[in-house]
Amino acid sequence: MSFSWKRNLAVLWIGVFFCSTAYSLSIPFLPLFLYNTLGVQENLEAWSGISFGITFLTGAFIAPYWGSLADRYGRKLMMIRAGFCLVLIYTLYYLVTDPYVFLGVRMLEGLLAGFVPSAIALVATNTPEEHAGYALGIMATSGATGGIVGPLVGGVVSHLWGNREAFLFSALLVLIAALIATFFVREVHVRLKKRSSVREDLRVARMNRPFMMVLGLSMMVTVSVMLLEPLLTVYVLQLGASEQDASLSSGIIFSAIGIATVIAAPRWGRVGSKIGYTKILFFGLLGGGIGSVLQFFFTNLYGFGILRFLYGLFFAAVYPAINALIVKVIEPDFRGRAFGLNQSAMQFANMIGPVLGGFLGGMIPIRVIFIINGVALLLTAFFIKVKKLDETAFRKKSIEG
User: Fold this and answer.
1) pLDDT tens digits for 163-201?
2) Alpha-carbon Rg of the chain, whole angstroms?
């Protein structure tokens, strides 16, 4: 394994970058696509929330199945499958003309996607354990870099040519990612003699109390963050951006967190390998919670963007720390399924957050939701501190479980 993990890390970084760019490319203008192209004139906040969330709902149910197949046949095969399926799905987005058909394609995306989680699972299982935290931190920068480039490219493409054409550009980027996975990724995979059932995987997971605790943290964090995902473009309009420039302005705002993650995530990963990933997780949640609350007080577009960047510097620690903790508490032969279950938990959270945020955005000022998000992150940080969770405790509980 030691001779190829660095090469895999570099290759998968590129593949995840293209795939994340393709996904995030359409995020800033999705509400505008519903409004201007598909004719959704009423309840735009709710439609935006449902459009975000329904993909994650279907993905949550299928993720353990893909994780089980990954442990049986390999993560590389799952990446290739997801990549070429996404090429088809983004092409369908270009063709859709009805909002209900659009929701159907969003559901199909949830069922067939999974390139990024498969890549993360491959890195986690094909990297020496002493380098896992560093490698997962580097992978976080890949998704974040795609999160930087995607909204900017999406804003420019939709501004110059239109929202539909941006989906075709996404299809091209995912095709590149799928070809990279096909020809350049190398996996050391020990094939299981028998593929376990999802019910059996859930039973094994429930017996591992530290792992279930990590899943709970992952869900709580994701729900709180995703409350705002479908509302940021609408909020940018409320802060004074013109409708013509809303896609580009929101793309820049979205990119602020990505830039911060690229800067901070590898550093958090290195520090986590020295002082422990639960401490890094605590600092990330604490700083992220405070940063989110402070966003309530900034009503200037430029000040809001700067604060989003500062918020991202701390929040960059959260997901790499969670992934590293999964590696710590799960045996190697179960890690593919463990990451599949974690992906399922995050998908449920990704579904609940946008839908809840969409309906909240129709009932209360969007600024108040920043307070809700911040308090949720602070409570999660407080939970970690009170429970005094650390890697030693995780290992002990894992053995007991």
Assistant:
1) 788 889 899 999 999 999 899 888 876 565 555 666 777
2) 20
